[in-house]
């Protein structure tokens, strides 16, 4: 299914988007990737949504990526005798391992690993940062704090600890079970929550055992500090601005977002910008102007994908939300300023033959009348390198591997077409020309750029570039091989 934009749209599925008709409508409106949130819904619900997506994929002959988002460990306070208490600024409040019901002076925090990592002066944030506590004294089973910002604290509210790296595994026991379940289902991407160090990514990769690509969610200050190593260990990144905005001053988030997006692009790894992008559309058919500007900013920065969460999962206007993102993306990408910004930020290091081939393909496409860049890929690496160049012409990725086509559905500008196994380069050129014509990117008398690797069907061998006509008779007449 041809899109008239390059940035991809990720839509989260949920109660508002769980049947065939709605999910198909979301895909037709512009959703390229569907997110299954493992924090909500049973395995039966997840399996049914997965089945529906694959049915739509078959019905429309359109590769669709499925992203399973693991919940990660949840740090929460215990319960209160009265259900909730008001904490006054300047008051003392104690957190401990005592399971007795809490009151205005204390509550249980059933996470000894937090106490093990705390030091005096550290901050604890409760209820998405609405309450801020400062540690004045701590031990292996308690923390005495001063209330810096007060408010109402109630049963099982979440706790964030921004100042320290917690000795907590990114994968809880629930996550391990969920990971195995969705990998057996056949999802394409795993989003890993609570990443603090590259070792968290390595652990998930070992458990996935090649069944899904690993996407690290950057939502903690520790992950920002060790981002380069986390990026190197990951297949993709999600800039999860919601939690980042809780654990960091909100004014820090926009420059962090910009830096992370550029680093991902330089590494040729897809990056999603997520959280609160069109949040007002949960209840309104129209977004705010600020939200539209926020979506546009992520696109101007060169993000591979932008994501809807509750807007499509539980909102009243899921199709309108996807349509709004599609409209904003098309308008931004038609803006000459967008092209100037994207091309000015093209600073990739070129260290291999494949790097040189894709850079040359982009240069040729932009200096002559080329309609598309067609790349044959097994692992998806060549398509990712072409996408890193952000060419002005469409990218057509041809592969005989359905899993590769699905994973590439997350990457900027990549349009995936299934093809058979190849043995000769002429066959590759013929298939590329046919795909460009059938998908509406070129006509018979147009030209395309074709990149491939010989020998075929071997990952990492991109070593050929050819400018080819789209008319088959001309291909035969100019290349007898």
TrEMBL record:
Pathway: Carbohydrate degradation; glycolysis; pyruvate from D-glyceraldehyde 3-phosphate: step 5/5. Coiled coil: none annotated. Residues 5-322 form the Pyruvate kinase barrel domain. Residues 356-467 form the Pyruvate kinase C-terminal domain. Keywords: ATP-binding, Glycolysis, Kinase, Magnesium, Metal-binding, Nucleotide-binding, Pyruvate, Transferase. It catalyses: pyruvate + ATP = phosphoenolpyruvate + ADP + H(+). Its EC number is 2.7.1.40. InterPro entries: Pyr_Knase (IPR001697), Pyrv/PenolPyrv_kinase-like_dom (IPR015813), Pyrv_kinase-like_dom_sf (IPR040442), Pyrv_Knase-like_insert_dom_sf (IPR011037), Pyrv_Knase_brl (IPR015793), Pyrv_Knase_C (IPR015795), Pyrv_Knase_C_sf (IPR036918), Pyrv_Knase_insert_dom_sf (IPR015806). Its cofactor is Mg(2+); K(+). GO terms for molecular function: ATP binding; kinase activity; magnesium ion binding; potassium ion binding; pyruvate kinase activity. NCBIfam families: PRK05826.1, PRK06247.1, PRK06354.1, pyruv_kin. Belongs to the pyruvate kinase family. This is Pyruvate kinase.
